[in-house]
């Protein structure tokens, strides 16, 4: 306001402060400004617990405890890829795979896997007690096989077809049964079996390997038949013999009246323990000195190997002559593989089962042998023979004489016989081949 009067007073002008702009900080002040910004606490610095800090000791507002970074001094490990789980022994397995990498929706695959598992579980009902995870493992493997071999459109039908095929399989009684396994596994086994079947052993290949008469006699083969008709003393019941198991004298009795002994069914082999050599039984793993009597209990039995004694039990005979008549074809094979299983009887060790296969591995003959009149089985020796009393009573129909006649259809004097410990099998069959008749 302006006034020209002489007595006019100067008006009061209010003071308005004007703030000047802050100066631009130079490089030397950067370190100071950075220090004003709070930094992260070191992972190794001690962590202050706010829960235990007394009230009023700090003017800083309380905040929740900060997370501490874990420092691992060891080598870093990459995360393991997700895998399918078959640990649920009593339930269907679970697919643990990346859904983004699966061409088929995971719920669809899981539903089909559950049905597949139930089918395997029903098929393996007799095996699950020994192998509880068998159905689960094979269901997972079968589902993976089908998934890899099919597309998004064919997966479901392929699974349904596989389940229908599983339901037609015979129930397996052992883990080695042909019904055990996925389709891929069984296919590979069949291909391997067919490949082996395609191999054939012929007489021409084996002729250079046939033993001479001298070598056969050296290894205990019957080259000459004992004198006499044979079969005059089929058993020794009531007589005193030496037990093969415990080496004690005993009176031969039938199965129901037989006396028992304690013995080792294994052999004592030399082993090293703590730098010391010891003979250890293979049957019980005990040192020979610590277990002189035995680890198994069973009836007294005896064994005979002299040709004259065996001939008295059952007469030896030659294999039949080969048919030289060109008008009639001989049914005998050029090559056979022979195996026999023995049991202990009142007449010593006697043949109880005879098995024969041809040069291609095909089964030709497999029969249980009924004991001769007056001869009784004392011990079926199931651990080694595989023959049980129940099986023997049901299936042993033909005696040794008729078994020998049946073998004549496949074996003649020209047949090459292959076997393991063949000299013992031929003796227990009371058979000698005329191919080597001197």
TrEMBL record:
Give the keywords, sorted. Exonuclease, Hydrolase, Nuclease, Nucleus
Record-level GO cellular component terms? nucleus
Can you say where in the cell this protein is located? Nucleus
Question: Which residue range or ranges hold the Exonuclease domain?
Answer: 336-436
| Comp. bias intervals (Low complexity) | 13-29
State where composition is biased (Basic and acidic residues): 1-12, 60-70
Q: What molecular function does GO assign, one term?
A: nucleic acid binding
Cite the InterPro entries for this sequence.
Answer: REXO1/3/4-like, Ribonucl_H, RNaseH-like_sf, RNaseH_sf
Span list, region Disordered: 1-92
One short Pfam name that applies is: RNase_T
Protein family per UniProt: Belongs to the REXO1/REXO3 family.
Name it: Ribonuclease H
* Naturally occurring in which organism (per UniProt): Pyrrhoderma noxium
